[in-house]
Amino acid sequence: MSGVIYIVNGPNLNLLGAREPDIYGHETLDDVHRLCEKTASASGLKVKFLQSNAEHQLIDWIQEARKKALAIVINPAAYSHTSVAILDALKSFDGIVAEVHLSNIHRRESFRHRSFVSTRADCVIAGCGISGYRFAIEFIAQQHKNYKNCAILPQLS
Ligand code: DQA
């Protein structure tokens, strides 16, 4: 599997920086993209950075990642709380899944407290702003390194 991480962003995240900045901050999605590229390249990894407002497009990208990516970082935005279809797509993906929310969804309205995606995610980061994407990529890089080290062990014995 190549060293590519799919970064999948859901609805309204294209408005980051302009939309409810008191909750989501002033940084834009371009800032998030730059942060992801910088963090991944520090570990020799690459990112494919994606955003859509359409559920079916997010599902198509997750399915594409099955053949192309070692991990998915996903902020499903409002679909976190509604989409069994996105959960099912993620369940078909064998690599690492990191779920990111800019805001702390547990400190907000009760309908945001449940995320379907969390039942598949290997890690969940909420409330760290755009740094959450950096933490997610660092987690993936660490897991990937551990996995590669383990893969070498049987050959040594
Ligand atoms: C969000 C939290 C969701 O509840 C919300 O619908 C979003 C963004 C976050 O990043 O904090 O659009 O996923």
Automatic annotation (TrEMBL):
Alphabetical UniProt keywords: Amino-acid biosynthesis, Aromatic amino acid biosynthesis, Lyase
GO function term, MF aspect, one: 3-dehydroquinate dehydratase activity
Keyword Iron-sulfur applies: no
Reaction(s) catalysed by this chain's protein: 3-dehydroquinate = 3-dehydroshikimate + H2O
Residue(s) at site: Transition state stabilizer: 19
Pfam family, one: DHquinase_II
Active site: 24, 101
Family designation: Belongs to the type-II 3-dehydroquinase family.
Subunit structure: Homododecamer.
Biological role: Catalyzes a trans-dehydration via an enolate intermediate.
The name this protein goes by in its record: 3-dehydroquinate dehydratase
Source organism of the structure: Candidatus Tokpelaia hoelldobleri
